[in-house]
Design a protein that fits this description.
Helix content is 22%, strand content 46%. It has 3 helices and 7 strands; from the N terminus they run βααββββββα. It has helices at 18-27, 32-35, 131-149; strands at residues 5-14, 40-47, 56-63, 66-77, 82-90, 96-107, 112-122. The radius of gyration is 15 Å and the shape is globular. A 7-stranded antiparallel beta sheet has the order 1-7-6-5-4-3-2. The termini are far apart. The chain is of the alpha+beta class and 151 residues long.
């Protein structure tokens, strides 16, 4: 039987200190359409507050030149500087049963590292891995770093 579950992983070196990069994800994601306008066109709060664990946000973003929508419930792990976007609905579910992006920020002596992962489950073996979504995740992470490190 085919294994339809997978996990993509990437690391992005950051100039930003880990706590400042995490703070952006924790309480300033409303700035993403300005910070990473090529990738994110809008984020609207659907339920809760911007910095609230369990808040639900609706993202309007572009992947491979196409506009898509993603509704997620955010989980913050303040102790481990980790953010998990629990997908609720959106275009990504046309190709995946499960889609869960995670960003864990690891401090370094100078700067930090963003460890990105996307856990997923495909509907069928011939469906592609979510590489195009990881590319957007990486680009957005780099854009946030430029914004935070130059602030």
């Amino acid at each position: 039987m085919a294994n339809l579950h997978g996990k993509l992983e990437a690391e992005v070196e950051l100039k930003s200190p880990a706590d400042q990069f995490f703070k952006f994800w924790r309480s300033e994601t409303h700035k993403l359409p300005t910070v990473s306008s090529n990738n994110v066109q809008g984020i609207n709060l659907h339920e809760g507050d911007w910095d609230q664990h369990g808040a639900i946000k609706i993202w309007n973003y572009t992947v491979d030149g196409k506009s898509e929508v993603f509704k997620e419930k955010v989980e913050f792990d303040d102790d481990n500087l980790s953010i998990t976007l629990q997908g609720v609905e959106g275009h990504v579910y046309d190709g995946y049963k499960v889609y869960k992006p995670v960003c864990k920020v690891v401090p370094k002596e100078k700067g930090s590292v963003a460890k990105l992962s996307i856990e997923y489950e495909k509907y069928k073996e011939s469906d592609p891995n979510p590489d195009k979504y990881m590319a957007v995740f990486i680009e957005t992470t780099k854009d946030i770093d430029v914004h935070v490190s130059s602030a």
